[in-house]
Design brief:
Elements (H helix, E strand, L loop, with lengths): L1 H4 L9 E3 L2 E3 L6 H18 L8
Length: about 55
């Protein structure tokens, strides 16, 4: 359901503040992470394992 409801993710550019770099997020990051979580939950369900979200 989350994959269907997630908006398009254009990403966020990184920012350089002097010697400090604040990392951005590449386009499509949210969708890729949701796909990873779905794959994990699907594997766990198929193998009789529980998922503990912390």
């Amino acid at each position: 359901m989350a994959l269907g409801l997630a908006p398009e993710d254009a990403g966020v550019p990184g920012i350089q503040l002097g010697r400090t770099y604040v990392g951005g997020r590449p386009a499509g990051y949210l969708k890729r992470r949701l796909q990873d979580l779905y794959a994990l939950a699907d594997w766990c369900a198929g193998h009789g394992r529980d998922v503990a979200w912390r």
